[in-house]
Amino acid sequence: MSITLFQFRPLFGLPNASPFCMKLETYLRLAGLPHTVARVNSLGKSPTHKAPFIEFGGTVMSDSGLIINHLERTHGHPVDGKLTLAQRAESLAFQRLMEEHLYWAAVYMRWVDPAGRAAWQPYMQQLLGLPSFLTPLVSRMAARGIMKTLRAQGIGRHAPEVIWQMGIADIQALAHWLGNKPWGFGETPTTFDACLASIVGNIIRTPWDNPMKTATLKHGNLVAHFERLMARCYPELAK
Ligand SMILES: N[C@@H](CCC(=O)N[C@@H](CS)C(=O)NCC(=O)O)C(=O)O
Questions:
Q1: 53 φ, ψ to 5°?
Q2: C-alpha to C-alpha distance for 110 and 123, rounded to whole angstroms
Q3: CB-based contact 106:141 (threshold 8 Å)
Q4: Is 70 in the pocket of ligand 1 (CB under 6 A)?
Q5: Residue 238 is assigned to a structural domain of this protein
Q6: Whole-number Å distance between alpha carbons of 39 and 138
Q7: pTM for the complete prediction?
Q8: How far apart are CA 51 and CA 21, in angstroms?
């Protein structure tokens, strides 16, 4: 059964500027599941109105984690099947750290941080396919809208320096846990690695400087892990 992966277009030399989209595309490559990628600007067809989402055999499904669970179950656990129950628990806990906490600090970094806003605008224009005269207005509106989301999530109620520190603490925890292992769990990458490389890549490939990027670049093991995964899964993009 063929799978169509719907996601945004690539940016920053990454397969995707959404860590969730990059994680899912990486999973599909690790699992060796044939798929085609469709680029979308509008998320109207996504059941949750978020990206990524997939279509297979007439079914449309969103949420990278739910999709991966479904594909693992229906394809004989090709990527995470080797993990023990304790490793699965660890993998899930770290994915939650990356996607439910660190991700929001990265959203602040990209969309809200006043010091990065001007640098982000041309990329945002490219990503959303905007006419240039609209870009500053859309950027301001997006920053305001996303700040509301960050306040609702909680992280946006803190001062900028605290948001940076919260993100950096997550990065440090990940770096210390990974240590000098090539992959999170053994000799081959799993969904944990897809998730880690996607968030680290999105932080370190951000073209402008900021405290979280600087702190992440200091962890050579995280940078090497990202490069290892790119070389393995995206030889066409790896430098
Ligand atoms: N839990 C979801 C999160 C997906 C998500 O937040 N995607 C973002 C892009 S990084 C999105 O589509 N945002 C659009 C919006 O919130 O309107 C997953 O794992 O797929």
A1: -140, 160
A2: 10
A3: no
A4: no
A5: no
A6: 21
A7: 0.97
A8: 7
Q: Is 7 in the pocket of ligand 1 (CB under 6 A)?
A: no
- Determine if ligand 1 sits within 6 Å of the CB of residue 63: yes
Check pLDDT > 90 for residue 171.
yes
CB 90 within 8 A of CB 105: no
Q: Does the C-beta of 25 come closer than 6 Å to ligand 1?
A: no
Beta strands in 59-215 (DSSP E): 59-62
CB 13 within 8 A of CB 204: no
Which tens digit of pLDDT belongs to each residue from 183-207?
Answer: 999 999 999 999 999 999 999 999 9
In a domain, 80, yes or no: no
Same domain, 51 and 89: no
- In eight-state DSSP terms, residue 109 is I
Cα gap 178→174, rounded to integer Å? 6
* Protein residue with its CA nearest to atom 3 in ligand 1: 63
- For ligand 1, pick from 14, 18, 20 the residue to mutate: most ligand atoms within 8 Å of CB: 20
Would you state the pLDDT for residue 239?
65
Residue 21 lies in a domain: yes
Q: Give yes or no for residue 17 CB within 6 A of ligand 1.
A: no
Q: Which of 52, 48, 31 is nearest to 40 (CA)?
A: 52
